[in-house]
Please model this.
Amino acid sequence: MPSRCLFVLLFALVLAGCGEDTGDRPADRSMMVTDRTGREVEVPGKPERIAALAPFAVEMLQALGIEPVMRASVRGETPEAWSSIPELPISHGAGPEMERLVAARPDLVILPEPFAHFASSVRSATGAPVLVLDVRTLDEARGMMELLGVMTGRMDRAVELGRELDRRVAEVVADVPGDGSGEGPGVFALFGTPDAFYAFLPDSYLGDLASLLGATLVTEGLPEDRSFGGFAQFSLETVVSRDPDALLIVTHGGVAEGVIERLQRDPAWKGLRAVREGRVGVLSDDLFVLRPGASPAEAMGRLRDALYATPSNGG
Model:
């Protein structure tokens, strides 16, 4: 799995391809970009018709003043600003609906990492270069904004947005409770439902944001699931052995009513110290699973509030 170091290299390659004038790159100058899979992709100068099938790229491109010609269909709520962008169904089994994608005439397609195996077929069908991009850390979110800014000739705007992000993140971090020692809670973070959970690993997007907020995911060492990067399957015995200070549940399909009460009634879960003491936080999956990298300051604010909420039963 490429680390944030890949994106340092990626950005260096972009700058090398652009020369010094990153704010206004000539429209006829292409560049070589190394994507998430390690592929080197030649991107045309200032692509204008971008099919942003990675949800974080939709928000970033709009912030740069560029309207994608297509976005992937996403379950759940999406920003109002997305309503005018044509949606494209995409599935893990069949990939994107190719006929509609071809009709959009993209000059660049951005795919998220879980759909990387469709890159060659998308390239063949559309004739457009295909970049596989994803976000697993806050640093990578910043790097992606800079990358998109360089590719589209909007680097000045990307730098401005990066500074605004840093300011907002600093405000969120400044409001983290505690004595300043940095010793935050040890957290077992779960994704799904009480019947079918996956565990977030420390190198997931949520894990990175939690660490910036002083918390530690106690899932280190669990084997990463082959199909879902940043997640691991686990047993309840594993949770008991890690004895987390708190549980964090990111529900599949929005914030589920009564999820905490269900855990408190379930014999398999209610014996956990975190459940007994009411130290269970619940979040929806929109900014942490469906759209990681989108609105990172907002995601950090929601995560901070869930991590440091008052115990639900006063324990």
In short: Residues 149 and 238 are 43 Å apart (CA to CA). The two ends are 40 Å apart (CA to CA). DSSP finds twelve helices and 15 strands in the chain. Residues 1-23 have pLDDT under 50 and may be disordered.
